[in-house]
Write a structure and sequence with these properties.
Length: 328
């Protein structure tokens, strides 16, 4: 255990957690909605500090990050818990269940990441479950990682309060943020959260680090071209070069709707491309090449997780000379 950040004492031994917008008020002996922050005798503790459920060297594209050093690898770590309750959760075993963990303190995580440089590792990704409820560990590890010249990545639902977000952003190089849908009703009914807070995170993070956005299109729930078009138009108002990943839903956790029809994802992608330069499809077996917005030439060719940077030379398209909008 480690004493948590962002909380205050209340009457009767209760504590108020200010890490995320749920603003849980927690009685002695009880935990917040994320399950990983507990009031013990009037002090709020993080229960998952240095507790790792998964550690793997993944392709950076698996996060998914397509415009952040494509073709490299990143050491990915996850823990337990989540502050949302998505009915379709793909990683529900660790987000809402309890599985065995291993002890991996920050200094050992960074040392492991350094050893993996020989296999193309560029840093650490905090992923698999929600990294913001692992806040204390992620912050400590990211600080150490940055000192070693490693990159730090968060794969997050973006449901976090502004103050802790501001404190961690100086140590974050890239984020993939899940925007579950573009309707508050969807967030309330299927996720137990609010869209407005996630939008705020995307807008703020995009001013500080590389950002890509993922939306899981769930059959008959958030997969209309109209809604995806609104999402894409909003992202374009921040930066039309933000990559949007539209992923296919499959039945999981508490939801048994049929998988999203591929033709709906393709139609949604067409609509999103009216606003954004880069839109990719996930979970459909697509190759997902990156094309130059200037001349249409292939900049990065992808066949699954096999990546070839075929059309970039000295930071520009080798065919038309347009500057590439992402680090390689």
């Amino acid at each position: 255990m480690k004493e948590a950040l962002y909380w205050e004492k209340k009457e009767g031994g209760r504590v108020a957690c200010h890490l995320c917008p749920h603003e849980c008020v927690i009685a002695p002996g009880r935990r917040g909605r994320c399950r990983m922050r507990e009031n013990r005798d009037g002090t709020l503790y993080s229960l998952n500090y240095s507790r790792v459920t998964a550690a793997a060297l993944d392709p950076i594209e698996k996060k998914p990050l397509y415009h952040f050093y494509p073709g490299t690898a990143i050491l990915s770590l996850g823990t337990l818990g989540c502050n949302l309750a998505c009915a379709f959760c793909q990683n529900w075993e660790i987000a809402h269940g309890d599985v065995p963990t291993r002890y991996l303190p920050p200094e050992e995580a960074v040392a492991l990441a350094e050893r993996e440089r020989v296999h193309g590792n560029i840093g650490l990704a905090f992923t698999y479950n929600e990294p913001f409820i692992w806040y204390e560990y992620v912050l400590d590890t990211a600080r150490m990682s940055r000192e070693k010249g490693l990159k730090n990545v968060l794969v997050t639902n973006g449901f976090v309060n502004p103050e802790p977000l501001e404190a961690i952003l100086p140590y974050v190089d890239a984020m993939n943020i899940d925007v579950k849908a573009f309707r508050e009703e969807y967030y309330h009914r299927l996720c137990g959260g609010k869209l407005e807070h996630v939008k705020r995170t995307v807008e703020r993070a995009a001013r500080s680090c590389h950002v890509e956005v993922t939306t899981l299109l769930v059959t008959d729930q958030n997969d209309s071209p109209e809604e995806v078009g609104e999402l894409a138009a909003w992202l374009a108002s921040i930066d039309p070069a933000i990559p949007l990943h539209l992923s296919r839903y499959f039945p999981a956790y508490k939801m048994n709707l049929p998988p999203t029809p591929v033709e709906r994802l393709e139609r949604a992608r067409e609509e999103a491309l009216k606003h954004l330069r880069y839109v990719y499809l996930g979970n459909v077996g697509a190759d997902n090449d990156t094309f130059c917005p200037g001349c249409g030439a292939v900049l990065v060719a992808r066949r699954g997780y096999a990546v070839a940077i075929t059309g970039i030379e000295k930071g520009a398209c080798r065919h038309c000379g347009r500057a590439v909008e992402f680090p390689v």
